[in-house]
């Protein structure tokens, strides 16, 4: 962890000819101020007075609704731009908030350039974000599921170099199982072998673990939920629920969704906040299910039974994969339970979205039942004839897949010394995540090497506009095409 820099007054300068940094009280417009009553209603006040007809309600305990109203209005104000003028320290350090593939590779790129960083991640079980593999013991059986990223492709030579290293280390292998499109009623069509499909040899999580073998310039802090960013004395000061987590020369946001929006909403980085706020994300339900008896899936001669399928024509299911035959082909057999991962469509996820941290039991039971019914429909089975799973686990990916993208490798605000990386900037896949993290790491290193004296030369991605992402229900996989050419690349919306 970097030590605090000498106390130097942080100077805020005009940002692109804007007014000097001065904190002022805010009003909505003219002489109109919004006052909150104890019940969360508002009253207009002009000239400082309150309407005589308005009755003051009895004081009540603050509630979340009232807080959300205040937060929403506060966030609507334009933030003053943080503009650092103090020189960079002799050995700059970077805080990377998010330990998924992009965050880890950003740290790796910085390490290669001799720059220290600390990766903060909320993961309890490990790093990797949605490169997750879950192992459980149930009924004296070991069950293994890739419950997020299912497989990936590589079309960029820079990402291919990393994949080749994973191959050489035995962490990755080609997925040669039968994969295709499964239409409602059990009609299966294999996908053309247009590109190599890769999987983690023992699941996706070991790939993330392999990226943690740093030489000493990277510190990992988890589980940790960074809740506040404050510019002070020429550094960014991070805290977790009022607990100091260190001071850094620059920060990287390597995750997205409402938590990232909340973190940026009052940090003095309006350009980053605007870009992050413009991101639209779908929601996807994931159902893990283990069956004692094999599912009656389609077969294709010598290729055997279906191992993975993009489901079409079923509202509650968009993807299904047999983890047992995919990850444990040598151990698969009649007595080995089949572990399946099912994903819903984005439309179904949106209609059934709830707080993912606290899923109501009624909703969980409803979603599980409807997704299993969707599997029946996809396989062309009569209702109620699907084998009953002896183990299930339901998870909601509330921020699963971007429906729009900026089409840039990374974002960097050189005045605030802050950047963003993530798969959503280029699409939604492991390749995009890798390229984004590596690009930002090298961009930051170049910025530090310049001494930060020419910030205008290092601004990137701050003013690009969003465009739609096609096929957003299930994402896209670079180089992979279906017979209708509607699938392109990603990790199933969950890379």
Automatic annotation (TrEMBL):
Gene3D superfamilies: 3.90.660.10, FAD/NAD(P)-binding domain (3.50.50.60). SUPFAM superfamilies: FAD/NAD(P)-binding domain. Pfam families: NAD_binding_8. Transmembrane segments: none annotated. Residues 43-71 are annotated as: Disordered. This is FAD/NAD(P)-binding oxidoreductase family protein.
């Amino acid at each position: 962890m970097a030590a605090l820099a000498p106390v130097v007054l942080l100077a805020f300068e005009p940002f692109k000819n804007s007014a000097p940094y001065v904190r002022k009280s805010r009003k909505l417009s003219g002489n109109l101020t919004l006052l909150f009553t104890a019940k969360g209603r508002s009253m207009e006040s002009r000239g400082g007075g309150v309407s005589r007809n308005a009755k003051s309600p009895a004081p009540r305990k603050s509630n979340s609704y009232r807080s959300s109203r205040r937060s929403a209005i506060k966030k609507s104000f334009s933030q003053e731009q943080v503009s650092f003028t103090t020189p960079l320290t002799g050995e700059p350090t970077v805080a990377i908030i998010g330990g998924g593939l992009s965050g880890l590779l950003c740290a790796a790129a910085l390490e290669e350039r001799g720059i220290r960083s600390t990766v903060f991640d909320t993961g309890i079980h490990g790093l990797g974000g949605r490169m997750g593999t879950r192992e459980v013991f149930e009924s004296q059986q070991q069950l293994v599921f890739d419950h997020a990223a299912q497989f990936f492709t590589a079309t960029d030579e820079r990402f291919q170099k990393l994949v080749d290293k994973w191959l050489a280390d035995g962490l990755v292998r080609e997925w040669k199982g039968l994969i295709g499109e499964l239409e409602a009623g059990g009609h299966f069509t294999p996908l053309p072998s247009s590109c190599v499909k890769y999987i983690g040899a023992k699941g996706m999580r070991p790939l993330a673990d392999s990226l943690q073998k740093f030489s000493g310039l990277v510190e990992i802090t988890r589980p940790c939920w960074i809740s506040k960013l404050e510019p002070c004395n020429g550094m960014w000061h991070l805290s977790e629920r009022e607990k100091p987590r260190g001071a850094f020369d620059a920060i990287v946001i390597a995750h997205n969704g409402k938590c990232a929006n909340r973190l940026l909403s009052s940090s003095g980085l309006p350009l980053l906040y605007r870009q992050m706020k413009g991101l639209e994300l779908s929601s996807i339900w994931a159902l893990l299910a283990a069956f004692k008896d094999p599912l009656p899936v389609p077969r294709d001669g010598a290729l055997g039974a279906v191992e993975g399928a993009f489901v079409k024509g079923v509202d509650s299911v968009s993807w299904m994969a047999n983890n047992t035959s995919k990850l444990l082909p040598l151990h698969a057999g009649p007595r080995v339970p089949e572990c399946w991962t099912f994903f819903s469509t984005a439309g179904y996820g949106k209609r059934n979205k709830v707080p993912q941290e606290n899923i109501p039991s009624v909703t969980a039971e409803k979603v599980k039942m409807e997704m299993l019914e969707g599997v029946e429909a996809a396989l062309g089975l009569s209702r109620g004839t699907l084998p009953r799973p002896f183990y299930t686990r339901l998870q909601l990916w509330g921020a699963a897949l971007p429906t729009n993208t900026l089409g840039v490798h990374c974002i960097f605000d050189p005045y605030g010394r802050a950047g963003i990386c993530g798969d959503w900037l280029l699409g939604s896949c492991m390749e995009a995540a890798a390229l984004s993290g590596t690009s930002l790491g090298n961009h930051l290193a170049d910025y530090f090497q310049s001494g930060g004296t020419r910030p205008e030369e290092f601004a990137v991605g701050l003013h690009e506009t969003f465009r739609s992402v096609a096929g957003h229900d299930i994402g896209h996989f670079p180089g992979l095409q279906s017979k209708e050419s509607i699938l392109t690349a990603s990790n199933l919306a969950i890379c």
